[in-house]
Known about the structure:
InterPro entries: Cyclase_SnoaL-like, NTF2-like_dom_sf, SnoaL-like. This is SnoaL-like domain-containing protein. Residues 197-303 form the SnoaL-like domain. With 320 residues, this protein is α+β, with helices and mostly antiparallel strands. It has nine helices and twelve strands. The strands form two sheets. It has a six-stranded mixed beta sheet. The chain has a six-stranded mixed beta sheet with strand order 8-7-12-11-10-9. The N and C termini lie far apart (43 Å).
Amino acid sequence: MSEQPTSSMAGTEWHDIVDFVERSTYRIWNEREVDLITRTYTPQTITHMDSGDMVGVEHVVEDTERALAGREGFRGRIDETIWTGNDRDGYRTSMRWTWTARNAGDPVFGGPTGRWIRVSATANCAVKGENYVEEWKAWNPGARAAQLGIGLDAAARMWGSTSTGKRQPEGRPAAEFGVRVPAIPARVHGSGELVQDHLTALFGRGDAERVFAAYSNDARLSVGTSRTYQHLAGIKNYVDDWLRLMPEREFRIDELYWLEDFNLDRVAVRWNLAGTVPTPRGEREVSVMGINHVHVHGDKIVAEFAEFDELSLHRQITGM
């Protein structure tokens, strides 16, 4: 953005907002300092996921402890953090990371296999002070299941049987914590406008030919850790797959911000795609949340990293 945000986190132990997001993540996961969650999440923090929302710091602690218990040699690496905001209005951050671990007993998908798995995720957070006050997490449990030798149908049944039915506290949106930095700036321009226009044309209007104007010839689009689409033809195949799956659809951008650099602009975009999927048992109404990091050089997208919950989508389509 032409007027770059400020990142000081004044009066805290953190050097700036990127240090807060990245170092707190490393401490919680790589160093297993789970107690730090009680300092950085609140009792009303909502974590939004396609598989269902999670509310409150206690649920985050429980979920993290359960995940780490089944993963030996866990090591996460943060790939990128895109952010906007300031100390007064709060921050919005989008952190993309990848972790590897040996399966010592998956909390959902069964007992220890000893297999190494590699999973990526992107978390968009609203931050006020030293607290994550609202979070949107995009990742694909289906990719984790596949690496454990479990297909989507079996994974969908196993995922559906893990609900605890535990009562959750009432959550509060970021605005009630005093976050005033907008999810989408009042004026969208530059690389933010380019990405907004291209994604809306591709998935909103269904103009798959827009790929040839939007992306560079050697662009790469990665979907989690499960697959990568190379060059223009591959990326068009990815778009065509979505359009065939969901002929009737509505595409919406819910969050958009970007950082400008001399050589490469980096854009974070959280989106929702909702529509109707034809199946042998009739039409199914589905909704997918995704988060993409998009790298722009000049007027072309040169790389894109997309995250969405393929397992949740499969469960919606099949009714599992």
